[in-house]
Amino acid sequence: MKRNSKHIAVTAAIALCAGSTLPFLAGSSTLDPERDSVKSEVPYCVTSPAVPEKISFAGQEIDLLRYDHRERMDRELMSFTYMHSTTMLTVKRANRYFPVIEPILKANGLPDDFKYLAVIESNLNPLAKSPAGASGLWQFMPATGREFGLEVNSNIDERYHIEKETKAACEYLKKAYAKYGNWLCVAAAYNAGQGRISTQLQKQMVDQAADLWLVEETSRYMFRLLAAKAVISNPQQYGFLLKREHLYPPIPYTEVSVNSGIDNLARFAKSKGITYAQLKDANPWLRDITLMNKSGRTYILKIPTQAGMHYNPKKTVPYNKKWVIN
């Protein structure tokens, strides 16, 4: 018998609500579709993801049975779970950028969990820019970027250079850890500034940033970080079902070293067999149609290979096997 699309959609929604596909929906008990599913003309089911009893971040265990911690975590888990397109896009991007970020964190002695800081700062969008002027995956302000060795001007902005900005972020994080000796305090300081976190730790007479009463943005920031780790490390548990062809693979590049100016980057790109747009996509730190380079510095330009630009998405290698359903 032929069924209409609405009937099929409602049936699928009831199946989801019953927990037959998404295990996190059922929690610790089995739902009865006849008893528990919502009878609705809207083919959609919304439920709250379970909050774990505890979660670890950078070797520190956070108790999520304490009511205030639990409810703050609950809010951020719901946010990540139901910001469907943003969370799914972030997982897709993570397949491309986590393999770049992780070795740099490791080489600098930073916990691997700090890759999730880039997630909550920029949703892993290399071109992200805040209304306040912070830019890149790690959202450096211009002055802070320069302080940590990045070139920032109208022609070159290394806040958009993924490897260099990640190394700069590592320097900031290591400097903060030398001060606090606590990685969650370091994360809070990344958002609010070391001065504010130090002052509030003293005033409120606590040792943990998660115990501070802060402005809403910073109070949420730490638990957004924990929720990002929970959801991005296991998206299927939160209802995000992706196939390997949905993920964005790393793009292979060749590298060209230049130590003089380039008066027309479009012409340069064409000489390398790519478009200006592809050159900019591979090197977003180039901020103009020219590379002035009056100081004679050496820059490394990435040139995407033809094989990389025309890949078979079904052969994408998943960074994390938990991310894919095939």
From TrEMBL:
<feature type="signal peptide">
    <location>
        <begin position="1"/>
        <end position="26"/>
    </location>
</feature>
<dbReference type="InterPro" id="IPR023346">
    <property type="entry name" value="Lysozyme-like_dom_sf"/>
</dbReference>
<protein>
    <submittedName>
        <fullName>Transglycosylase SLT domain protein</fullName>
    </submittedName>
</protein>
<dbReference type="GO" id="GO:0000270">
    <property type="term" value="P:peptidoglycan metabolic process"/>
</dbReference>
<dbReference type="Pfam" id="PF01464">
    <property type="entry name" value="SLT"/>
</dbReference>
<keyword id="KW-0732">Signal</keyword>
<dbReference type="InterPro" id="IPR008258">
    <property type="entry name" value="Transglycosylase_SLT_dom_1"/>
</dbReference>
<feature type="domain" description="Transglycosylase SLT">
    <location>
        <begin position="104"/>
        <end position="205"/>
    </location>
</feature>
<dbReference type="GO" id="GO:0008933">
    <property type="term" value="F:peptidoglycan lytic transglycosylase activity"/>
</dbReference>
<dbReference type="InterPro" id="IPR000189">
    <property type="entry name" value="Transglyc_AS"/>
</dbReference>
<dbReference type="GO" id="GO:0016020">
    <property type="term" value="C:membrane"/>
</dbReference>
<comment type="similarity">
    <text>Belongs to the transglycosylase Slt family.</text>
</comment>
